[in-house]
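Batch manifest, entry 17 of 40.
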Amino acid sequence: MLAAAITVAVAGASLMTTPSWARPADPADGRLVAYQGYRVTVPASWQVVDLAAQPGACVRFDRPTVYLGHPGDQASCSTNLAGRTAALIIEPLDAVATSRLTAQTAITAPGTAVADSAVSHDDAIQVAVRGAGVLVTAAHNPDTEDAVRRILASASLGRDARPSADVVLTAKAQPAAAPLAAAPLAAAGPQPGTYTGKGFDTCAAPSQSTMNTWRNSSPYRAIGIYISGGSRSCSQPNLTANWVTNQTSNGWRLIPIELGRQAPCGTRQPKMSADATTARSQGVTAANSAVSAAQALGIPAGSAIYNDIEQYPSNASCKHAVLSFLSGWTQQLHARGYLSGMYSSGSSGITDVCGAYNDPAYTRLDHLWIAWWNGVANTDGGPYCDAAYYANHQRLHQYAGDVRETWGGVQINIDRNYLDVSTSVTEPPPTSWSAVVDNTTPGGFTASANWGTSAFSAQRHGTDYRFADPVAASDPAWFRVNIPATASYEVSIWYPASTGYNEATPFIVATTGGNQTVTVNQRVNGGQWVSLGVFSMAAGDGDKVGVSRWTTGTGYVIADAVRFTRV
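Output type: structure tokens
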């Protein structure tokens, strides 16, 4: 973090015709926006908002806009903004802006307005332009990142540009991005901790003065904050590690929120994959991103982080994708030392999660945040979630939404919540299931007389294994198992390895969507379980994994053992 004051040119915003000496190579339908000598061309359809003239404007990312100047208190932001498209914030690079610089901020070389190596972090690109003394933050989603980068590449310096006078920034600046000091861990313990009572959430973290006023006059003691995710609609100019320190020191409980990928059957972007295996992986990625954001803000391990999945028209495949995403989310948060939570509407996400409470195919959340606007401040889940589920201080209830409240003369647009939570309580996992089928398992293995038996390799599983020459014909050996329920299963194989064995052995997995083939090099990684992946498999007894002789590889094809694990 940089705290030194910076001398900047007098702030002023204007729209002007591009002079020939500074004309960027951009579409003819663009418009040039200039601020303190920093010039950038945006599409003509974009709005331009001068925050000096409109200090109360909500800096929102759900519509393409250029904001000039420092974002204000953000108290006017609605809580029901939907997602993000693209936007630019161009503000003076003074002490206010430098408090928001991160390790991912790119710093331009002297005399230039473009940082070629600028990276995107949490769906935003931040560039400190030394030659004009401005900080540019470009918000985007996965679909608009390329367009935003083209806009940033159009930037130039005008004759009225005045370089930043910040000695610290100059010393750290390089032609490419320069890492800055990481924020210290600062929160007063895991969040939200143990708390029963009222809380609120709002699109943007309020200013310190607003938080102080509401602390002294409102009934709320917990606040939801959007710390990460590519679907967040509001700028977060106040949300820093210092802000976190101040609020928790003043007795506020924080509810950290990730607002990112949404249900594949919903309307909001960006969406998680409809493929359950991919969705699970995306949940892992979301967890890592959320933990990075939490750590940068000083929200420590042991805290709960809540994934916001907005209302969606649920169906069987969509439910499977959402629950798989949340399983990956939960497992990775646990691996990183955090607890998992989820916010959703009672009629979609909450119903799906509670309906799978005892399903071992999915990993249980630790906390559940129920959106049910019935106006009652309690943690009742109504018809959407059985009272016995998530009952041990694990519930939050959003009981009213997008309302304006005024306390101490300060008004904010909020959603009202009631919490009964503890970060010292976690959910036990559902009962798991696993089965190993060896080539000697009675009734578990079938193969033609073309498959021989060997105990040659010490890497074998059990007493022996089966082998066969490759052939351009269908003659697979099959492993049979009784699958307890239609769900996701990890399939792993065991085989001895040798240079004389086949380098392209086809393993056939019978999934709910048909047979899938995974090719394995049996010359390496022998004597251990090797995962073929996670597959949706149907309940019932039958041939589930085959080893085919039909391969272009050379050397013996080996069939030894298969392990099935419900995930």
